[in-house]
Amino acid sequence: MAPPRPSLTGFDPKKFAAASGNSKGDPWARYEAWRYTGPFTRWNRFKGAFPGLGIATVAFAGYLVAEQLFFKDEHRNHGEEHH
After folding, report:
1. Could you say which DSSP state residue 23 is in?
2. Residues whose CB falls within 8 Å of the CB of residue 24, separated by 6 or more in sequence, listed in order
3. What DSSP designation does 38 have?
4. Nearest 10 degrees: CA dihedral of 55, 61, 64, 67?
5. Is residue 41 part of a domain?
6. Where are the transmembrane segments (predicted)?
7. Can you tell me the distance from the alpha carbon of 4 to that of 6, in angstroms, rounded to the nearest whole number?
8. Which domain holds residue 65?
9. Residues 5-42 pLDDT 10s
10. Are 20 and 27 in contact (CB under 8 A)?
């Protein structure tokens, strides 16, 4: 098998990657890091996904409690059917 021919331009991608000093393999990792810090963390992105869900849950639970305490249907448990 013949040895690989040298590039006409003299550019060697392996030498270029070694000279960059980036050992992780992703040269853009430093520039992408901001996407996962500060207000863009996983928790902050999830927290903003459902605005008002906490208030709605508390209001619905309050409604269910009020319905059970104050708005009981007196005809429901007698076993009689009214037509």
Report:
1. S
2. none
3. G
4. -70
5. yes
6. 48-66
7. 6
8. 27-70
9. 777 788 888 888 777 665 666 778 778 888 888 888 88
10. yes
